[in-house]
Amino acid sequence: MATPGRKKAATGASLLDALSPQLMSLVEASLGHSLAAPSSVRNGLSSANASPPPQRSTVQPPANRGESVIPQSRSSDYIRVGVLNPSEIFLLRQADSPGFVVREHFLGPAAATAVHDACLGLTESTPMRPAQVGVGKSTAVTCHVADARGDQLVWLPHDKTALPPPLQHLLAQIERLMHGLAKAAPELGVRNVKSTQLAVFPGHNTRFVPHVDTYDHNNNAKQHLSRRITCLYYLNPSWESSHGGALRMHLQDGTTWDIPPVLDTLVVFRSTDVLHEVLPTTVHRLALTTWYYGGGSATTIPSTPPSATSPTPTTPSFATNIATRTTSSCVTGSNQPLEVAGGDATSTIFVSIPSYCDSECQPTVAHLFATAAAPSRVFVGLCLQHEQDDQSMDMYGEHVRIKRMRPADATGPCLARWETQQLWKGEAFYLQIDSHMRFRRGWDVYLIDQLRRCSNSPQGRPRKAILTTYPLGYTLPNEIPNDTRPTLLCASAFDSHGMLRQCGKVLKTSPSS
C-alpha cells in the first residue's frame, strides 16, 4: 500500500533515478563518460510531450578558410555538463591536431544568462585596467599595447566563495572538464592550479593580434609552472556577424577557423602552441578566461633563467634586440633626452624594483630598458608579489632577476626591498625605484654623471654620495611632463592615525647648473 502523497516507483527504475544532478556529475566524472538519463527523467520528458536535450557537438575545424561556427538556439533551460568525449580529448592531446574544441550551449540558457549578468555586475563594480602584451613570437613587443591588444581586464580572486554563485557554478563545470582531461591525458601535465580573468573589448575596432598563451623559452615550461590549457567562455547574448570580434584560430596548414563569441560558447585549447587572435570588434565584447597550469610546484610560478655569476654586460645584440622591440612604442617624441657629453656608457647598473600587484610593473621595466643609452649594462632585481603568472619578463633573459612571492606573504616594502637587494651581483651602481615609473632617454648616463659630480668634496677628498628625488607623475601610457624642475618632499599634515604625511612640491625655478 502506497503512502499518501507519494507515487509508486516507475517500472524498471534504477538507483540512478534517485541521484541528484550533482551526485550524477560526480559519478560520471569518476567513470570518465556520461550516463544515460534516468528512466524517470525519460518518462517525465515523454509525458510532457518534450524532447530530451540535444547532444552538444564538438566542432571540427574545416579545411577551407574563414568559415564560422554558428550556434543554434536551444529550448532547454538546463543542460547538465558532460565530460570531454574521446574525440575532444584526442584533439587536445595530439600534437599535430588543431588543438582546440568548441562546446556550444555549455551551461544552458538560464545558467548562461545568470553568468552574463554576474559578469556585467563585476565590470560595473570592479576597476578594470588596460591589458598588456609582454612577449610574442614576433618582435612586436610593446608597453603601449592599444594597437596590439585593446581589451580591459580584471583578475578574479582564487577564492571562489568570493564570487557570485553563477560564476562559481561556471568555474565548477569547467573544473569538471579539466579533471577528466587530466586523468585521460596525463602527458599534458594539467594540474588543479588555475587563474581566471574577465576581459572586455570596448568596441572601436579593438583587437588582439595573433599570439599563443605560453612561450616555452629554453624549455622552462618543463621545470616551472606554466599555462597548459586555456578555457574561453563567451558572454555576448546578441552577437551578429557584422559586429566582428570572432576568435580566429590559426591552423597548422595555414588555414583559419573563426568562432563567434556568442553567449554560452566554451572554447578549450592548448595554451602552448595554438595560435589565435581576436578580430576587430565594433561593439562591447565580454569573455571569461581560465588558464590551467602544469609543471613546477603548486606554490611557484615561472621565473627567468638564473643570472650569470659575473654582472658584466652582454653582447651588443641585447641592446639592438631591446631597441627594436620597445623603443618605437615606449618612447614618444616628447621624451627629451638627457644630454651628457662623453658620459659613462659601460659601467653596470643594478635597478631594484619591488612590485605588489602592480599592473604598471611590466611597462616600467620595458620603459627602463627602452630609454637607457646602454641597456646591455642594466640589470634589474625584481620582487614580484603577484598572483597571476607573468612571463613578460622572459624576453630580458639574465638582465631581469626575479624573486616571486604570493601577495598573502607580503609584509610591506621593507621585506620586498631586502629581497631585491639579495639579487645584486656586484654591479657598479645601484638604483632603487618604484614599480610605476617612466624615464627620460639617456637616464643611465645622466645619473652616473650627476653622481660623480657629487663624489668629491670641495677639498677634493672622496666621499659617498646618494642622489634622491621624488619624481613627477606621468600620464598613461608613457606621457612624461616637460617640466624638469626638481621636487622636494615636504611635510603636509598629520592624518587621523597621527602619522605625518608628506607630499612632493616642485621648486619655483631650477637651480643654476
From TrEMBL:
InterPro entries: Glycosyltransferase (IPR021067), Oxoglu/Fe-dep_dioxygenase_dom (IPR005123), Pro_4_hyd_alph (IPR006620), Pro_4_hyd_alph_FE2OG_OXY (IPR044862)
Keywords: Dioxygenase, Iron, Metal-binding, Oxidoreductase
A Pfam short name: 2OG-FeII_Oxy_3
Obligatory cofactor(s): L-ascorbate
Keyword Ligase among record annotations: no
Superkingdom: Eukaryota
Region (Disordered): 37-71
Gene Ontology MF terms: dioxygenase activity; iron ion binding; L-ascorbic acid binding; oxidoreductase activity, acting on paired donors, with incorporation or reduction of molecular oxygen
Polar residues bias: start-end ranges: 40-61
Record-annotated Fe2OG dioxygenase domain positions: 192-294
PANTHER family: [SKP1-PROTEIN]-HYDROXYPROLINE N-ACETYLGLUCOSAMINYLTRANSFERASE, GLCNAC TRANSFERASE-RELATED
Protein name in the entry: Fe2OG dioxygenase domain-containing protein
Lineage: Eukaryota, Sar, Stramenopiles, Oomycota, Saprolegniomycetes
